[in-house]
Amino acid sequence: MTDELILALDAGTGGGRALAVDANGGIRGRAFRPWSYFEPPGLEVLGREFDPRAFADALARCCREAAAQAGGRIAGVVCTGQRQGCVFLDQNDTPLYGGPNRDARGINYTEEVEKALDEDRAWRTTGRWPPWIFLPARLQWFRHERPEIFRRLRRALMIPDWVGWLLTGRAVTEPSTAADTMLLDLATRDFSAELLSTIGLDREVLPELSACGERAGEVTLDAAAAFGLPAGVPVFVGAADTQAAVIAAGAAPGDATIVAGSTGPVMRVIDYPLVDPDKKLWTGCHAEAGLWLVESNAGDTGNGWRNYVEGHLGLMTDDLPALYARVEELAAAAGVGASGARAYMGPIIWDMAAMGMSGRAGFVTTFPPGPDNAGPGAFARAALENIAFAFRANLEQVEGVAGAASSVFLAGGMTRSPLFQEVVANVLGREITVVAEPEATALGCAMVGFAALGVHPGLAVARKAILGYPLTLAP
Fold first, then answer.
1. What residues pair up with 298 in beta bridges, in sequence order?
2. What whole-number percentage of the chain has pLDDT above 70?
3. Number of domains in the chain
């Protein structure tokens, strides 16, 4: 069809990645760089930060590597990244602070922020509560604890917007990303002047609002040199990482998507901004116009699985693909029910009205323990079933608020495992449609990019061309 490629640039929770995707969904180049966070002095339990310069360098290296592999013309770039995380810049665009989605320093000023925002008003307006990890609470922390930084603040960018800014020098966002500032009015899909006034934040600090797929700008000369891209290549407004995966799934109003990544968002698409009256679940904007998402979350799903496999069983090998293949072979042999073993390895049933900061994890099994019921196969199978049951419970919560899902899609990195796909279908007890490519977020970005270029006339056509016919599994 064309040799044009879209480069998806993703600043995720666990690292930066770049994928060069062609119009038929072929991944022509890919690169990944892991990154880590540090605990600021005095915030060893709650605080997490990153060095924006180091993250930018990692993204640039990923971009150069993927582009060099691609063997085609990069015709456009679409940026995405983790939600809730943000970067502060001063008037000279010097980074002042980089905070990931898990930076909860704002909890120290929760009472003050909650009183100012007013819980019922903030909930009805933003679909978000409590404010611990969101921009208002972080700003309040800096106002009190680092006033010298707060005074210099001129831009507050969510991480996907910051990635776009690195390439274009323009600060542009869209509703699915902006919703996680906790300052966006769900109904109008615009920043709330009332909430901005309440927290004393000038509108100019936040990026310009646009729409997913609109042109954010072009790759600047400086960015071209750093990222290995031709100057002038268009950069299109993307989406938050989870919403990009929902785009890849093709979920329509009434459908639900389980994104089995590092964490486990469970989202049902709706066509009006419904909020949970019990305040357990979030409501956010979908990247597609006129659509919203009711969200629950199973917590540390992929993180828990990786920690078990690599942390407990990977000490004697550096061959991770072979390790995962062997562990899943043992888990399959353990059979349904994991020979009596049960895992509690991080997945949760989400309830933002009663969310705590601590928990316990581990395995239990029948007595007496032995190789069959306490070996790596049984525990691995138990961990997968633990994740699947958490997805089921969170999906049921979402359906209790937004109505039964017409279809259920499964996306994300854990879909690399056919066994995991099978376990989820069996535990849900219903047919699921699997997004065949585990890099669903990148493919969602590619769909946005090719639709924006006009290579495919709209997201529906782009989705069919890039993913083809999906895999459907029955329990």
1. none
2. 98
3. 2
Domain span at residue 344 reads 248-475
Distance CA 130, CA 158 (A): 18
**DSSP string of 23-42?**
TTS-EEEEEEEE---BPPTT
pTM (2 decimals)?
Answer: 0.92
What confidence tens digit (pLDDT) does each residue in 76-109 have? 999 999 999 999 999 999 999 999 999 999 988 8
Contact call for residues 322 and 408 (beta carbons, < 8 A): no
Task: Give the number of other Cβ atoms within 10 Å of residue 271's Cβ.
Answer: 12
Taking the C-alpha atoms of residue 195 and residue 122, their distance in angstroms, rounded to an integer, is 8
Query: What are 60's strand-pairing partners?
Result: none
Q: Residue holding tokens 């994890």? A: 361
Whether 243 maps to a domain, the answer reads: no
Last residue of a domain, one of 177, 209, 238: 238
DSSP string, 197-237: HHHT--GGGSPEE--TTSEEEE--HHHHHHHT--TT-EEE-
The phi-psi region of residue 180 (left if phi > 0; otherwise alpha if psi is between -120 and 50; otherwise beta) is alpha
Can you give the CATH number for the domain in which 440 is found? Answer: 3.30.420.40
